[in-house]
């Protein structure tokens, strides 16, 4: 593997459960930050897998079963990384009165009642949104969904402090994330969405997702003192689900 591909390899191995190389398992902080430029590209690969899977199995199975299997595929290939972050974030918000209390709760490997409820509701909403997608929109929306969610993580991370003073998994990513990385990620996801959905829906959807991502960062700074890997995972989940819910209406109006 060439050095130029190392950030992409890091992004793939961090965001998925599928190893592609035995090398590059100890990237430098600068390389971890550089890997975030490739997050939307990894999302494109995941979206392509979902779209192809949908086209293949929809020939034999009802839409409801297909939707459940698509969610299963996405959770399995990403190790449930973002679902775990969503549940931990909800638990922290529900159980702590101070930022330090909330961060302590989020580190507990056990899931609480609020976290479990939030996770369940997120899966139900995702399922309902996929089932409700019009036939003509299923492939382009499924294709774009993982990319815009991972782009939202990059936007939310830019310029944000890490919540834990002692550091953590996401700290090296934030320390060296630059505007160049964010711009590169934006070009990738915008190009994909304009190609799949058209210019106006793409710009509107990205604007909504970007605004939500930055508001989530402000929210996390207030309640947690900064962001963590868990809060970025939660941001990804909420953006993906929102994208699934609004795109049919957005494409109809445009």
3D architecture notes:
This protein is mainly α and 254 residues long. It has one domain. Helices cover 76% and strands 0% of the residues. It is built from twelve helices and no strands. The chain has helices at residues 6-15, 29-35, 39-57, 63-77, 81-95, 99-107, 113-132, 135-157, 171-175, 179-197, 199-224, 229-253. Helix 5 crosses helix 6. The radius of gyration is 18 Å and the shape is globular. The mean pLDDT is 91.
Structure in a nutshell:
This protein has helices at residues 6-15, 29-35, 39-57, 63-77, 81-95, 99-107, 113-132, 135-157, 171-175, 179-197, 199-224, 229-253.
- What's the rounded overall pLDDT mean? 91
Contiguous runs where pLDDT drops below 50 for at least 5 residues:
none
- Helix-residue proportion: over 70%
| C-alpha Rg (nearest Å) | 18 Å
How many strands, what sense, and barrel or not for the largest sheet? none
**Tally of individual domains:** 1
Assembly level: single chain
Question: Rough shape?
Answer: globular
Keywords:
254 residues; mainly alpha; 12 helices; 76% helix; 0% strand
Sequence-ordered SSE layout with sheet pairings:
Elements (H helix, E strand, L loop, with lengths): L5 H10 L13 H7 L3 H19 L5 H15 L3 H15 L3 H9 L5 H20 L2 H23 L13 H5 L3 H19 L1 H26 L4 H25 L1
Helix pairs in contact: 1-2, 3-4, 3-8, 3-10, 4-7, 5-6, 5-7, 5-12, 7-12, 8-10, 8-11, 8-12, 10-11, 11-12
């Amino acid at each position: 593997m060439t050095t130029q591909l190392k950030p992409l390899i890091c992004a793939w191995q961090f965001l998925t459960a599928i190893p592609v190389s035995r090398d590059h398992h100890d990237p430098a902080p600068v390389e971890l930050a550089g890997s975030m430029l490739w997050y939307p590209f990894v999302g494109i690969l995941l979206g392509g897998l979902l779209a192809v899977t949908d086209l293949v199995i929809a020939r034999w199975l009802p839409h409801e079963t297909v939707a459940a299997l698509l969610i299963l595929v996405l959770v399995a290939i990403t190790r449930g990384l973002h679902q775990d972050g969503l549940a931990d974030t909800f638990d922290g918000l529900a159980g702590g009165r101070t930022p330090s209390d909330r961060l302590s709760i989020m580190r507990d490997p056990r899931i609480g009642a609020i976290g479990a409820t939030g996770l369940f509701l997120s899966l139900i909403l995702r399922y309902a949104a996929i089932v409700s997608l019009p036939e003509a929109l299923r492939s382009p929306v499924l294709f774009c969904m993982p990319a815009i969610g991972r782009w939202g993580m990059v936007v939310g991370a830019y310029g944000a402090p890490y919540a834990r003073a002692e550091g953590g998994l996401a700290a090296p990513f934030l320390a060296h994330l630059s505007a160049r990385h964010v711009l590169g990620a934006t070009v990738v996801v915008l190009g994909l969405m304009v190609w799949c959905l058209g210019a106006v829906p793409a710009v509107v959807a990205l604007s909504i997702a970007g605004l939500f991502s930055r508001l989530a960062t402000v929210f996390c700074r207030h309640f947690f003192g900064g962001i963590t890997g868990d809060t970025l995972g939660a941001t990804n989940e909420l953006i993906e689900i929102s994208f699934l819910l609004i795109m049919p209406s957005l494409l109809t109006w445009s």
